[in-house]
Design goal:
alpha+beta, 178 residues, Arc Repressor Mutant, subunit A, 30% helix, 6 helices, ADP-ribosylation fold, single chain
Length: 178
């Protein structure tokens, strides 16, 4: 398995389908690394403990975290599984945040705002460059500007994951521009 395919597989399992490899996550999203590897191997995947550790250490996005004892792993955000309910602290966001999307989604977003879809939160970036990268994953990129300061002042909760991704329940269309 290439490092990129290992990372994508781990993200899929930890965020969306732990049961696909017989894994059970705790409420904070932690999984035993040996159980993850064993489940992947039993399912025909060529995954080793070293691949898991490399996925944690590679890339600029820092999608995963290892426990202090090095025996467990979790995805930092992006969960759709209801097994996980991370307890993020509410924080005041920067005045503006950014959301990268594909141009083909703009009509729906302008009508309904940003919704989490299958995930638990809408993901926002603190900088425009990151939002462009995210948008490119889905097609021709477009960056939306979120008036996070005004949303927060009106009572919308924001959280920041350990890797700097900002999270909120939804962004109504009146808080979007761009």
């Amino acid at each position: 398995m290439t490092p990129e395919s290992a990372s994508k597989f781990i993200a899929y399992v930890l965020r969306h389908a732990p049961e696909s490899v017989g894994l059970r996550l705790d409420a904070e999203g932690w999984a035993d690394i040996d159980a993850l590897v064993a489940g992947a191997v039993a399912g025909g995947r060529d995954l080793a403990r070293a691949d898991v550790v490399q996925a944690v250490d590679s890339g600029t996005k820092k999608r995963y975290e290892l426990s202090a004892d090095g025996r467990r792993i979790r995805a930092l955000q992006g969960h759709s599984t209801q097994q996980v309910s991370r307890g993020f602290e509410a924080l005041a966001p920067p005045a503006l945040l950014f959301h990268g999307t594909a141009t083909r989604f703009l009509d729906a977003i302008r009508a309904h705002g940003l919704l989490p879809g299958a995930r638990q939160h809408v993901h926002l970036s603190a900088d425009e460059a990151t939002a462009v990268q995210v948008g490119r994953r889905h097609g021709k990129a477009h960056v939306l500007v979120v008036d996070a300061g005004r949303m927060h002042a009106l009572g919308h909760a924001f959280h920041c994951a350990e890797n700097g991704v900002w999270l909120t329940a939804a962004v109504p269309p009146e808080f979007l521009s761009g």
